[in-house]
Amino acid sequence: MVEIIIKPNKGFFNLDLKEIWHFRELFYFLSWRDVKVRYKQTLIGIAWAVLQPFLTMIIFSIFFGKLAGISSGEIPYPIFVYSGLLFWNYFANSLLTASNSLIAEQNVIQKVHFPRIIIPLASTFVFLLDFVFSFIVFVGLMFYYHFFPTLTGLLLIIPSLLITFFGISGLSLVFSAINVKYRDVRYALPFFIQLLLFLTPVIYPVSILGKYQWLLYLNPISGVIETIRTGLLGVGTINWFAFGFSALISIVLFFLGILYFKKSERFFADII
Amino acid sequence: MEKIIEVHNLSKNYKIGEEKERYYSLREEMIKLAKKPIQWLKGEKTSKKDFWALKDVSFSVKKGEVIGVIGRNGAGKTTLLKVLSKITPPTEGRAIIRGRINSLLEVGTGFHPELKGRENIYLSGAILGMTKKEIDSKFDEIVKFSEIGEFLDTPVKRYSSGMYVKLAFAVAAHLEPEVLFVDEVLAVGDFKFQKKCLEKMSKVSQEGRTILFVSHNMDSVARLCNRSILLEKGRLIMEGPTPDVIEKYTGLRKGIGPEINWENPIEAPGDPYVKLKSVRVLSKEKRPASKLEVSEDFYIELTYWNFLKGAKLLPCIRLVNNEGVYVLSATNLPSVCSEIDHWYDRPCPEGLFRCVCRIPGDLLKEGHYFINIIIGNLAGVIDSFAHVYEDQILSFEIIDKKNMHKEHNRKILMGVVQPRLSWKTEYQEQSSSLLK
């Protein structure tokens, strides 16, 4: 028989994997709900997932590619920027949604007990669906511009998604927990993400930063974007160091996120 | 029998700081904001008060028992359930629960309005801790219990509130925990469905499940629970057989007589802006009385201090009967007053105010009534923006000394009120002409 002991928080670290395992299906149900609800009562539905990056690509190509004249090397600027947006959009949208996820569920948090960590983690999955659809457009662009992926590039898609997922999770665990107490996050984060776009090699290649390139790699999404771009378009050589560094940073972020989240989790119901 | 719940000196403390206070205007908010750095520089700390929502609560429950938790609003009932169901941690003390817990603090937790009834059964079930397999196996039973029938594939945002509640409760009623915590969730829904839920819950306890049941409805507590605990201001003040505890609870109010009075605004109930001074029940002759004749008018008088210059206050009296049903609300809104109260919608200066409300005779039935006092502000919705919110502050009894209703079979007089109504029967036609 289970014996549950309820006592004041002593502040030690207890991830309680057993309980998370018990509620494992809730990951599925919450993600499933988000997918179901996402495009309800919209006219063009899932087409938004394709339209958004596609229109962004056109606008960026006009302003940054043509007017500002940012050089994308041998790669035509539209497909260059689209390959960056592919992972960037997944990163930015998930991070924003996951960071607001606890507040969105505040009613449930005050009424039912389950491991809270499931809420921000589950809320990132819905954007995988968007990713898949915008990836299909990317394949179309590759045909159009006659690019062929390398085998390494194809094999790196899943690891890249994993790195992105760990990075998003780590950051959003911290932000969503802070957001419970200080709603400032809600206003500051969109701004922060907007700025981060310019510190990520989405609209320009890493090479334009010269010897300060390493700065970009502090952002785990940078390594992923560069690697996928090189691998899938088959132009240039993969910077394995940058890729490995991205992986390391995102895993470190993930564990820091869990630590911070668990520390503040117990009082969510009181202060939300 | 083994103890399935053991609670030892459980306490829960909330810090009520300045941030918790409601702001009334942007201007005040900005002044407070501007003061903060100055206070900080001076080394003043924002005043934080300790509030013990629960204090040294100890009790134990045996397997299969259904325990009622009784107390006024703010006595700590919901906090107790929240601590025991791990939603919020205690500040002191501990509790041991031997079994799988489920809590039902609200109907429809986790429902999403855009999803269909069918989908919400799965979603809500999963949030309440059921596995997909469990939901699959009980799905048909849940649908049948909910009585929603053909609306199963309609988004719940199109449901009537009654249907919504029924579906939500049907999911919750099919949880199979060893320990179930139920908060005031039966107060919603129609009477027939409430009865069905009560029956389902008592069936649950016969199967050996343990239930902690919070309700304002003494009737359902009495029906469901053999034993009850009584909370008052966060403390457990009585534990015992349900009829005794209910008697003590109603007696707590009955004992205090027809009036309650505070001399000092600091101790009086209310927020810093408005404080209640007194509440009195006055007989027809304007004398304090706790027993009132069914056919005679009586008065409820309240006095309060206003410290918020220019506030437009909305005092309100609510009467609740012994079953926890709201019988009536009285306030100075012009639409519900027989004459215009000239302090309605008028900025009040600081000072003491007195309101008297006349309740006509031949309206309320015999029985015990509780008075709730709310002093709201016309700036906001009354309940969520109340300066004073005192639940069951006084009680009185309507009696029938003159045997007004005793002339005939009283069983026919069902209902919450018994006003004296006009009734006329006419003789219209001879029966012999009908037969032709």
Describe the structure.
- The complex is a heterodimer of chains A (272) and B (436).
- Chain A is an all-alpha fold and 272 residues long.
- Chain A has one domain.
- Chain A is built from 14 helices and one strand; from the N terminus they run E-H-H-H-H-H-H-H-H-H-H-H-H-H-H.
- The model of chain A has no long low-confidence stretch (mean pLDDT 87).
- Chain B is globular, with a radius of gyration of 25 Å.
- Chain B contains nine helices and 18 strands.
- By secondary structure, chain B is of the alpha/beta class.
- In chain B, strand 14 and strand 15 form a beta hairpin.
- Chains A and B meet through strand 1, helix 2 and helix 5 of A and helix 2, strand 4 and helix 3 of B.
- Strand 1 of chain A pairs antiparallel with strand 4 of chain B, so a sheet runs across the interface.
What's this, in brief?
The complex is a heterodimer of chains A (272) and B (436). With 272 residues, chain A is mainly α. In chain A, 71% of the residues lie in helices and 1% in strands.
Average pLDDT score of chain B: 81
Tell me the major beta sheet of chain B: 6 strands, mixed
Lateral strand order in the biggest sheet of chain B: 5-6-7-3-8-9
What fraction strand of chain B?
25-35%
- Strand/helix succession of chain B: EHEEHEEHHHEHEHEEHEEEEEEEEEH
Which bin fits the share of residues in helices of chain A? over 70%
Q: Shape of chain A from CA axes?
A: globular
Which quaternary structure do these chains form? Answer: heterodimer
Q: Tally the helices of chain B: what do you get?
A: 9
Tally of individual domains of chain A: 1
Strand proportion of chain A, as a percent range, falls in under 5%
Instruction: Write down the domain tally of chain B.
Output: 2
How many angstroms does the end-to-end distance of chain A come to? Answer: 33 Å
Could you name the CATH homologous superfamily of the largest domain in chain B? P-loop containing nucleotide triphosphate hydrolases
Spans of chain A of at least 5 consecutive residues whose pLDDT stays below 50 are none
Q: Report the end-to-end length of chain B measured between terminal Cα atoms.
A: 75 Å
Q: C-alpha Rg of chain B, in Å?
A: 25 Å
